[in-house]
Amino acid sequence: MTIRWIIPGLLLACSGNAAAFDLGNLVTPDQMHQLEQAGANALAPGQTSAPAAHPGSSALDRFSATDQSTGLRQALTQGAQTAVSMLEKPNGYLDNQRVRIPLPGNLQRAQDVLSKMGMGSYGDQLVASMNHAAEAAVPQAEALLVDAVRSMSIDDARKILTGGNDAATQYFRVRTGSAIAARFKPIVSQAMSHVGVTKKYDQFAGLAAQTGLVPANDATLEDYVTNKAMDGLFLMMADEEKNIRAHPMQAAGSLARSIFSALR
Q1: Which of 71, 98, 248, 263 could form a disulfide with 56 if both were Cys (CB 3.0 to 4.6 A apart)?
Q2: Residue 122: exposure state from Cβ atoms within 10 A (0-12, 13-18, ≥19)
Q3: Is the pTM of this model over 0.90?
Q4: Confidence (pLDDT) at 17
Q5: Listed residue (77, 98, 60, 65) closest to 172, CA to CA
Q6: How many CB atoms within 10 Å of residue 115?
Q7: Secondary structure (3-state) at 111
Q8: If we measure between CA atoms, which residue out of 131, 63, 65, 69 comes closest to residue 97?
Q9: Pure H helices in 61-104
Q10: How far apart are the first and last CA of the chain?
Q11: Could you read off the pLDDT of 150-188 as tens digits, one per residue?
Q12: Could you tell me if 160 and 72 are in contact, meaning their C-beta atoms sit under 8 angstroms apart?
């Protein structure tokens, strides 16, 4: 059976409002006026409400702003290096179901049909190649992440320290994601050329795109692998960040251990 007859078959197969608290029975009108005046005087000029306290901010007050920033940088550098080391090892992406790069959605359906026809090896080879490309490229991301940690402002560090379990990871995604992707993509592209991903993808997806099974813009393999590789990296970094917050004594730096211990 030839591929020109398989693809048409694949195409067919894949077809409130808050309630007010009444003090009327507890205080007189004059006392109420005094209470309201006292509250207004406690606010800064031009301020309409009291500032919300950051969770854990009081625990950080005994550390200088510089120490807070230094401690966070120690923890984030450790998290980035640990995440990279987990993903750069042989089959670091392929054997980890949480970060494993799958076929694009439409090709996933095509792979299911190919498998039923005894031709699943085509898709399996492509999946392995994409994951090995990410594995080969991810060590180059370490320097980019460490540079981003070093350029973090003291104010950003304070917000991250008092944020959620993945506050730092979200910071990187919002503030530096585009810049990292722009520098990461050519590294992925180079790694892909070494493992022959592009050729395999063209063989597998190109013909399917001609028949309408796969949209033409799904042929941008470099963008797809780059984004998925970064997703996996940020996921591992988020895991490390959460772990350090939960277990501060596992942090490598002494300041990081002290600061994250104070936050607990």
Answers
A1: 263
A2: middle
A3: no
A4: 36
A5: 77
A6: 14
A7: helix
A8: 131
A9: 65-88
A10: 64
A11: 888 888 888 888 888 889 888 888 777 787 788 778 877
A12: yes
The position carrying tokens 């004594």 is 249
In Å, how far are 40, 226, 241, 247, 252 from 244, measured between CA atoms?
Answer: 41, 27, 5, 5, 10
> Residue ranges of the alpha helices (H) in the chain?
3-13, 29-41, 57-60, 65-88, 105-116, 121-137, 141-150, 154-161, 167-195, 197-201, 207-210, 221-246, 254-263
| Tokens of residue 143, six digits | 């320097």
Domain ranges across the chain = 63-263
Regions in the chain scoring below 50 on pLDDT: 1-29, 31-32, 34-36, 38-55
C-alpha–C-alpha distance, residues 146 and 157, integer Å: 14
* 112 close to 119: Cβ distance less than 8 angstroms: no
